[in-house]
Design brief:
InterPro entries: Cyclophilin-like_dom_sf, Cyclophilin-type_PPIase_dom, Cyclophilin_A-like. The protein has 5 helices and 8 strands; from the N terminus they run H-E-E-H-E-E-E-E-H-H-E-H-E. It has 254 residues and is an alpha+beta fold.
């Protein structure tokens, strides 16, 4: 079973310290140490990465696979995301898992209205990816605006370097914040938002409390209406959708 996440605290100053975006901890989690069901021999397999080889392997894969667009398919429709080349390890990892079919065994398994939808994992997955995390790639150009694509991670107590999960991702659905809230986040995280970034947070929305805490590596370019439909899914007390929202992820040409 997946372990529960810490509670979501809305737009409080403590948001980034206690939020959903810990890596999904089901039986395929990259730190539980438990084993998954063995995949059938005909199923595609991935080379299992480790903390020792992850950077070299992703750098090599990224050079040979410069793709930067992917489509997330769900029963509500498709979401097209653009992956940032300035976060090369995260881009390469997402493309690698998508091309291998790993994400086709996943689902959106946590939904917090007005905050984010989180996916990438599933209790039914058979494909393994290895026990590794991705070094953080914070970039001041990329903020947690509404529609941002970012990678989940374990909390600071067990992950002080803020390394990302190997596979759990989320899409931000945050609402507009006010000027006072934004200034508080700037002071807390030592950020100086550009006028354009400030305008986005004040008018469009997002989750500034997550900036410098989680790596943003892409954004939704089409299908935010689909994200909103997933956001409206009825959930249980643990914020799991009552009806499974499976997803597939395909890399597409520019």
């Amino acid at each position: 079973m997946r372990k529960p996440f810490l509670s979501h605290l809305g737009h409080s100053v403590l948001l980034a310290l206690s939020l959903l975006l810990l890596a999904g901890c089901n039986k395929t989690s990259d730190e539980t140490g438990s084993e998954t069901v063995e995949a059938p021999s005909e199923e595609p397999t991935l080379e299992l990465l480790t903390s020792e080889n992850v950077v070299a392997k992703l750098e090599e894969f990224g050079k040979n696979n410069p793709d930067s667009l992917a489509v997330i398919g769900t029963r509500h429709g498709e979401i097209k995301v653009r992956l940032y080349k300035e976060t090369p390890l995260h881009r390469a990892n997402f493309v690698r898992l998508a091309k291998a079919g790993f994400y086709d065994q996943g689902e959106f398994y946590r939904v917090v209205k007005g905050f984010a939808i989180q996916g990438g994992d599933s209790d039914d997955r058979t494909m393994k990816q290895g026990a590794y995390k991705i070094p953080q790639e914070f970039n001041p150009k990329y903020i947690h605006k509404r529609g941002a694509l970012a990678m989940a991670r374990y909390g600071d107590d067990r992950n002080p370097e803020k390394e990302s999960s190997s596979h759990n991702f989320y899409i931000v659905t945050g609402e507009p914040v006010d000027k006072e809230q934004l200034l508080a986040f700037e002071q807390k995280h030592g950020i100086d938002y550009t006028p354009e970034q400030e305008k986005i947070y004040l008018s469009v929305g997002g989750e500034p409390g997550l900036d410098t805490e989680y790596t943003v590596f892409g954004e939704v370019v089409e299908g935010m209406d689909v994200v909103e439909k997933i956001e409206q899914e009825p959930v249980d007390a643990s914020e799991w959708p009552r009806q499974v929202v499976k997803h597939t992820i395909k890399v597409v040409n520019e």
